[in-house]
TrEMBL record:
<dbReference type="Pfam" id="PF00069">
    <property type="entry name" value="Pkinase"/>
</dbReference>
<dbReference type="GO" id="GO:0005886">
    <property type="term" value="C:plasma membrane"/>
</dbReference>
<dbReference type="GO" id="GO:0005524">
    <property type="term" value="F:ATP binding"/>
</dbReference>
<keyword id="KW-0547">Nucleotide-binding</keyword>
<dbReference type="InterPro" id="IPR000719">
    <property type="entry name" value="Prot_kinase_dom"/>
</dbReference>
<dbReference type="InterPro" id="IPR011009">
    <property type="entry name" value="Kinase-like_dom_sf"/>
</dbReference>
<feature type="domain" description="Protein kinase">
    <location>
        <begin position="8"/>
        <end position="210"/>
    </location>
</feature>
<protein>
    <recommendedName>
        <fullName>Protein kinase domain-containing protein</fullName>
    </recommendedName>
</protein>
<dbReference type="GO" id="GO:0004672">
    <property type="term" value="F:protein kinase activity"/>
</dbReference>
<keyword id="KW-0067">ATP-binding</keyword>
Length: 210
């Protein structure tokens, strides 16, 4: 963990969630891992020394499904680390904003590009050779949009193989909080996202009050 923490800055990226917090990081040249010099995003879990350890372990293992996923519309996982204290996930860093932050200002052409790219990413997950992967957390808050309006699906904490018991992480986008994972759930959730893109409305048609 000391090696991973050496790459961390104190600058957070986005808000904390049930897993932890994302920080900016930097991997220097000539590092011992044989990685090229690059800026990265490092997701650091909350402490494992709590009654939430089992949930943190589940979310960490779900994120590791990204190891077998390579697609231009899905965030890239560069590496990971597990210690007695915390879990660490290292992702590619890019100039991008959350779809939820820009959805109301997109032109139709930009919105269509986001729709097409997100559909391509979901189709890749649902056709994964190891079995259909269900994201279970599709919403505008889990889609990054680059400066070129290329969407990147992020946050795989609840990703499971179709048919497994899952927790749906985006209230207002899935019909139930938990159940057996189905690609139909992702498709329904993305349909709501697409509706928001078309109408330029930042709120889901099925939004629920916290």
């Amino acid at each position: 963990s000391h090696d991973v923490e050496a790459f961390l800055s104190q600058q957070s990226v986005g808000r904390a969630d049930s897993f932890g917090q994302i920080f900016r990081g930097y991997i220097p040249a000539n590092n011992c891992y044989g990685l090229k010099e690059m800026d990265v995003a490092i997701r650091v879990s909350h402490s494992r020394a709590t009654d939430q350890e089992a949930d943190l372990q589940m979310q960490f293992k779900n994120e590791l499904k990204l190891c077998s996923v390579k697609h231009r519309n899905i965030i890239g996982l560069i590496g990971f680390c597990e210690t007695k204290e915390k879990f660490y996930l290292v992702y590619e860093m890019m100039k991008a904003r959350l779809l939820s932050e820009v959805i109301e200002g997109l032109t139709w052409e930009q919105a269509l590009k986001v729709i097409k790219g997100t559909v391509a990413g979901l189709a890749y997950l649902h056709g994964h050779p190891e079995g259909p992967l269900v994201h279970s957390n599709i919403s505008p808050s889990n889609i990054l949009v680059t400066e070129g309006f290329v969407p990147k699906i992020i946050d795989f904490r609840y990703c499971v193989v179709e048919g497994q018991l899952c927790i749906n992480g985006s209230p207002g986008y899935y019909l139930s909080k938990q159940g057996l994972a189905s690609v139909k759930g992702d498709i329904f959730a993305f349909g709501l996202v697409a509706l928001q893109l078309i109408t330029k409305d930042g709120r889901s048609a099925f939004a629920v009050e916290e």
